[in-house]
Amino acid sequence: MKPAPFVRHVPRTLDEALATLAEVASEDGRILAGGQSLVPIMAFRLAKPTHLVDINEVEGLDKLVDDGKTLTIGARVHHAAFHKPVTANPLGALLAYVARHIAHYPIRMRGTFCGSLAHADPSSEWCLTAATLDAVMVAKSVKGAREIKASDFFDGIMSTNLKEDELLAEVRLPLLPTDGKFGFYEFNRRAGDFAMSASLVTYRLDGGRIVDAHVGLGGAEASPRRIPDAEAELNGKAPADAAFRAAGEAASTAIEPLEDHQTDAEYRRDLVKVVVRRALEHSLT
Amino acid sequence: MSAHTKGSGDDGMKWVGRSIRRLEDPALVQGRGRFTADLPAAHWVRFVRSPNAAGKIKSITAPDGAMVITAADIEGVKKITPMLHKFNYKPVGQPILAEGEVRFVGEAVAAVVAATEEDAEDIADLVEIDIEDAAALVDGRAAVAEGAPQLHAGIPGNVIVKAEVKTPGFDDVWASAAKIVRCDARSNRQNATPMEARAAHAAYDAATGRITLHCTTQMPHLVRTAIADCLGMPESDLRVIAPDVGGGFGQKMSLCVEYVLIAWLARHLKSSVAWTEDRRENLIASFHSRDQYITLEGAFDTNAKLLALRADVLANTGAYSCFPTTCGMEPLMAMAEMPGPYDVQQYECLARAVVTNTCTMGAYRGVSRPSITFTLERLMDKAAKAFAIDPLDIRRKNLITQFPYKSAMGLEYDEASYRETMETAVEAINVPAFRARQQLARDKGEYLGIGFATFSERTGYGSPAFAARGMAITPGWETVHITVDPSGFVEARIGSSPHGQGLRTTLAQIIAEEIGVPPQMIKVVHGDTDTAPYGWGTFASRSLVISGGATLIAARKIRAKLLKIAGHMLEAAETDIVLEDGKAKVAGTDREVTVAAMAREAYTQTHRFKGEIEPGLTESGTYDPPGTFSNACHVAIVRLDAETGHVKVERYLVAEDAGRIINPMIADGQVHGGVAQGIGNALLEEIIYDESGAILTANLADFMPPTAHEIPPIELHHMETPSTQSITKAKGLGEGGTIGPPAAVVNAINDALTPFNVEIDTIPATPQRIRALLRNAERAS
Amino acid sequence: MTDKTAITLTINGKDHAISVEPRRTLADAIREDCGQTGTHIGCEHGVCGACTVIVDDAPVRSCLMFAVQAEGKQIRTVEGLADGDKLHPMQQAFMDNHGLQCGFCTPGFLMLAVGVLEREPDISDEALIDVLSSNLCRCTGYQNIIKSVRAAAQEMRK
């Protein structure tokens, strides 16, 4: 299972990378970052890019900066960078907790945060994270930079609104409020497998009531997203079983479930109900 | 009554029974193993495989200048045609490359030959196969349904093997039953998934005209015999070498078309040519196993004593028939061993193998024993429920306790410990404590379950047992040649072909025990047909018993000769001589001579024997035993997440008896590995076809062997009932680990499901399946 | 087929000057171009971990890297674990505890375990089992692999 032949380009600067990408994009030229998602599909020859723009030598793409309002994650930052909290803000603990669920240790050594987003696997934990936290993706090309909100970024299974000549150069995650809470729960068959459903939730408490709830769902639909119906069941309520169950039910009803040879719509809905509720329960610990 | 010892007793043996480190390991841990894919070759092959499950090949178009072999190029190469002379077997031959039609997705249609693997794959991408698609038959039951298309001209109704048995008096006993209990079990398709996929490397030697074929196989001699026959070449011109083999589990004990083609190519090109299978190919086109529907009914009297069993076994054995055993292997074993460890003399069984447009069936550790044990143990649990008695009590009433026991099928079950291992397991697992924990959990909406499986494992059976199946090729015996060279080092050449079982160590221990030479001075060699005596390979839990037995016979002869030589050299009576520490010593004195000195004498000073002792120090042994039954009780404790259907095995315990254990550490390792595969079978692993015959589980993300996370610590308890049917007193145990888990785990799941009043009789018991049952139950209530 | 590039791979401290296509995986280059066949290929899609090597102190799946990406990096494979005749504690532990049977997955597990323990010598037992669930084995049922790695971890902390 050897990949089809390709020409490899190794730019040293972002401008070089973008210029090269502009040249080769129309011939199915792609970005090579961690390779942990791209290389397997090349091995199966499901993808046969004729050019790879290897960004592993590009200066400045390994940015990981907390400026007090957002955490900016550059295109070369690996999953493993998040193993230990990268910020004292609760976002650091959230990312560390989620990171542990991504594939396996050696994959996390090379795979990248931005790479996961650009790959847009429906069950990707970082895609779920970006969608739930209303991340802003910064796409760069020779034509300039543009910001894409998470809700406008994911466009179906393995599909985003990045143009073929755009590099996802960085992602900006808003920091959580200092008293922000988070919870995460993922269901899979074996350790490290793709999630069959996963939920990330964040909220604050105001007077003992939930406010500003974010309920994100991954692995259940073609793209991860926030589920407003579930959030509506939480805002203004006490963080307890009744609200959590209602949120799970609402999410379960709201989705257009992904189906495959082993998982039908009913089972997916069952899982959604559970993962949302358990993510909320996790937020209490 | 028999004497069962708990654990490996010290009966005065120095080497046998000790957990010495494996002699195989130093090379392997340093990355110095040699596996087939490690060999360089001048040419590499990539197979072009059928994308369709059924249809006529209209044309094959290859790019200009490419070397692409099709069936037309290998006319004269015989098909692989295993033969069974009983059970209404309808012979079918598998062409080396598809001829005129394709019969399963993944069938090899063409072979691209190029200088590198990458080039071969690039060219293969460009080969176009035009197929006139035909409807595919995928499911076993669909294959025998009314109106199903006939897939092979010579196999009416798609039934390739049909066996029926019914004991006289069955009907009356059946009619007299107080209760009939039934289990409809579904065992879904498995793939053994060795970490090393298949690979072959063939090289032509211009000087001799011989071909040397390195291949990852469990049976090098059979591969040689069969390929020489297919190619119409003298067997002496073919040398087959099984180098280091990265796991087989039965998948590599059937001859595959790819190895035949590689050997043919080496002759054709007069060069070296190699093929390394990729994981996707292994998942779709190697050999599959255990795709079975089993219906089992048990007739019980009012005291829950089992009176009679009636079974219907339908095995979906794919498009062709595996060589040498034929696809009869699964259904016929199911028929022969269905009654398991229970005392029941009335038995009726219909066992069939049916052809479909799927990958051909081959053996996978345990063969049918995991699926029949699953069905039988589910039946016993259902019967226990029907009688409102404890599942352990129904087993107590029915397990065989008197030996030897002749089964309804005429199998002789030798001395074993079915009851004893069960009671050992029961005591160790502490059922009352579990039940208390289970109740507390239920009160909190958590679901724990406990499940038991008691079973026998047929092992170490030689040619008489295989002959009963009527195979044209009847394996069974093993030969071992032991030579002590003039330097005093010992070499044992064996016909078995281990691939992880530690035979180089355990056989060395047997030899060491007999002749007093430490294992580090004993080399066990295998795998090269030029040097290894003709043998059948390693499979069916046979090697330690049969090669071990042959080793013991040969070692005893060496021992006898050494004593004679020592007697001469030390001028002492043989009865006064002890062999130990690499020496012969006269007991009670300090007179001694080393084995090295004796060996040197045996080659270079033979005149001193005055014709009383033959020169040299080489002896052989051949062993062909009837077979011996190991047994075990497995217990699983599971936690069922009712909301998701997910099952976690929290605790797993094995109480096993495989007779005398040569190396406890190695024996335990075999059980561990088998149990992990069994847990995979019970919960995770399934090859899934869609209705068109395409495989949906063609990578290791979709086909799910367990990781370390899914396997709990496995608790082992040992008994040793010395085998009366094996001269080493050892029984086999390679497959036992896989036989218990589907039964134990699924019985545990059903125990956990008790409050919900639903049952599952399908393996793997996936979360989706369990959740669907629970959802339906929720709706019904 | 694309043009080959001349690169140098530094494996276990030794330089190998080779010429490879960009698509040549690090696993294939290590095995075929550099002749170090101790690293094995089990799946070529990054799931089984048999191909695990250490690149600049990180255990990685060599089937998911291209050889050309590894130039200038320190690559360690199973062949470099022993110090002459002296086995690495991990290798010794696997032998002492029957952590291998057929040996095919073993180099991958050795490099995974060594790589992780060198980075995190005080890793918790739970996290260690998580790490070991990265790689597949079909022979051992993982019991003795876990035992071996635990034993080696103790040795390595000394």
Can you describe this structure?
Chain A is built from ten helices and twelve strands. Chain A has helices spanning 14-24, 38-43, 90-99, 105-110, 113-119, 125-132, 150-153, 228-232, 241-254, 265-283; strands at residues 7-9, 29-32, 51-54, 64-66, 70-74, 136-141, 144-149, 167-174, 181-187, 197-206, 209-218, 225-226. In chain A, the strands form three sheets. Chain A has a five-stranded antiparallel β-sheet with strand order 4-5-8-6-7. Chain A has a four-stranded antiparallel β-sheet with strand order 9-10-11-12. In chain B, strands 4-6-2-13-10-11-12 form a seven-stranded mixed β-sheet. A six-stranded mixed β-sheet of chain B has the order 8-16-15-14-9-30. Chain B starts with a strand and ends with a helix. In chain C, 34% of the residues lie in helices and 16% in strands. In chain C, α2 packs antiparallel against α5 and α3 packs parallel to α5 (143-157). The interface between B and C is large, with 61 and 56 residues.
Outline the secondary-structure elements.
The complex is a heterotrimer of chains A (285), B (781) and C (158).
Chain A: E1 7-9, H1 14-24, E2 29-32, H2 38-43, E3 51-54, E4 64-66, E5 70-74, H3 90-99, H4 105-110, H5 113-119, H6 125-132, E6 136-141, E7 144-149, H7 150-153, E8 167-174, E9 181-187, E10 197-206, E11 209-218, E12 225-226, H8 228-232, H9 241-254, H10 265-283
Parallel strand pairs in A: 1-3, 2-3
Antiparallel strand pairs in A: 4-5, 5-8, 6-7, 6-8, 9-10, 10-11, 11-12
Helix pairs in contact in A: 5-6, 9-10
Chain B: E1 5-6, H1 25-29, E2 43-49, E3 55-61, E4 67-69, E5 101-102, E6 108-114, H2 117-126, E7 128-133, H3 140-144, E8 159-166, H4 170-175, E9 179-187, E10 199-205, E11 210-215, H5 220-231, E12 238-241, H6 257-269, E13 272-276, H7 279-285, E14 292-300, E15 306-316, H8 329-337, E16 346-354, H9 369-386, H10 391-398, E17 405-406, E18 412-413, H11 418-429, H12 431-443, E19 447-459, H13 463-467, E20 478-484, E21 490-494, H14 503-515, E22 522-525, H15 543-570, E23 577-580, E24 583-586, E25 592-594, H16 595-604, E26 618-623, E27 628-641, E28 646-657, H17 664-683, E29 714-720, H18 736-739, H19 741-752, E30 762-763, H20 767-780
Parallel strand pairs in B: 2-13, 9-30, 11-12, 15-16, 21-22, 28-29
Antiparallel strand pairs in B: 1-29, 2-6, 3-5, 3-7, 4-6, 8-16, 9-14, 10-11, 10-13, 14-15, 17-18, 19-27, 20-21, 20-26, 23-24, 24-25, 27-28
Chain C: E1 5-11, E2 14-20, H1 26-33, E3 52-55, E4 58-61, E5 74-76, H2 89-96, H3 106-119, H4 125-132, H5 143-157
Parallel strand pairs in C: 1-5
Antiparallel strand pairs in C: 1-2, 3-4, 3-5
Helix pairs in contact in C: 2-5, 3-5
